[in-house]
Design brief:
A seven-stranded parallel beta sheet has the order 3-2-1-4-5-6-7, sandwiched between helices. The chain has one domain (7-240): NAD(P)-binding Rossmann-like Domain (Rossmann fold), CATH 3.40.50.720. 45% of the residues lie in helices and 16% in strands. The chain has helices at 16-27, 40-52, 67-80, 106-134, 145-149, 155-175, 200-203, 215-226, and strands spanning 7-10, 31-36, 57-61, 86-91, 137-142, 180-187, 237-240. It is α/β, with parallel strands linked by helices. The protein is globular, with a radius of gyration of 17 Å. The mean pLDDT is 97. The structure holds NADP nicotinamide-adenine-dinucleotide phosphate.
């Protein structure tokens, strides 16, 4: 791998899908910037896994909703790495605050939209220019089946992920000429902390594959989209859901 492609930033990489993506990109030779909100112990486990597969990484805690915190972390990184840049961004940090719209307080609406949409903007915007100058980049946004289909009890989450899908397509058209691809990966039900409160035995009856997916399966897809082989795939939303077709 050339130096220009050396660093990958994965948001929400302390646990779940983000951790699996971090380890997979580390296997590809990337040095991983492991973002998370507060769970340092879990982020350190991700770093240990990254090192186990023979790569390097560093913890980069910040709340993706906090513009000033993101800017300060990215500026500090750039100062420590003069002449280098982040070539791969996986916007994975996300939260669920499910409620029927009728009972949904404004805070639950904003927390979910801010994490997904503001998070995407805060992290991606300051890193785009370096990718454009380098004429190579990969941006993968983790969305959801809920953002394609619309799920009851998830108007906030569906709106956030649907908005991110639209942003993915718009940005992909802006930067395609610069050999930067922007894609969205839309998981169905994946076994992580986020879904640990869901009745898996009941829900798997509606999944043709009859099981929840694993974070590593999502990570394999993300890794492919980050590879050179995926250079001609951009502006796409790729589902990974065990066959739940709409
Ligand atoms: P998870 O196990 O709950 O992990 C969430 C991760 O996001 C953690 O690393 C957490 O950090 C981080 N995070 C949350 N809010 C953040 C913030 N404001 N700033 C920075 N980091 C933040 O979730 P997951 O299941 O792996 O989900 C990952 C992504 O996939 C999310 O975008 C989710 O919407 C999407 N997704 C998941 C499923 C599924 O079935 N699991 C399905 C479709 C889509 P801390 O550890 O510090 O809290």
């Amino acid at each position: 791998m050339t130096d220009v492609k050396r660093y990958a930033l994965v948001t929400g990489a302390s646990r779940g899908i983000g951790r699996a993506v971090a380890v997979k990109l580390a296997e590809m030779g990337y040095t991983i910037l492991i973002n998370y909100a507060s769970n340092t112990a879990a982020a350190e486990q991700t770093l240990a896994r990254v090192q186990e597969v023979g790569s390097e990484g560093e913890l980069m805690p910040f709340d993706v909703t906090d513009a000033a915190a993101v800017e300060s972390a990215l500026t500090a990184w750039k100062e420590r790495h003069a002449g280098e840049h982040i070539a791969v961004i996986v916007n994975n940090a996300g939260i669920r605050k499910d409620n029927l719209m009728m009972w949904m307080p404004r805070t639950e609406w904003h927390q979910v939209l801010d994490t997904t949409l503001d998070g995407f903007f805060h992290v991606t915007q300051p890193l785009l220019k370096d990718m454009i100058v380098a004429k190579w980049g990969r941006i993968v946004n983790i969305v959801s089946l809920s953002g394609i289909k619309g799920m009851p009890g998830q108007t906030n989450y569906s709106a956030a992920k649907g908005g991110l899908i639209a942003a993915t397509k718009a940005l992909a058209s802006e930067v395609a000429k610069k050999r930067i691809t922007v894609n969205a990966v839309a998981p169905g039900f994946i076994r992580t902390d986020m879904t640990s409160d869901l009745p898996e035995a009941e829900l798997k009856k509606m999944i043709p594959a009859a099981r929840f997916g694993e974070a590593e399966e999502v990570a394999d897809l993300v890794a492919f989209l980050c590879s050179d082989k995926a250079a001609y795939i951009t502006g796409e939303v790729i589902s990974i859901n065990g066959g739940i077709y709409m």
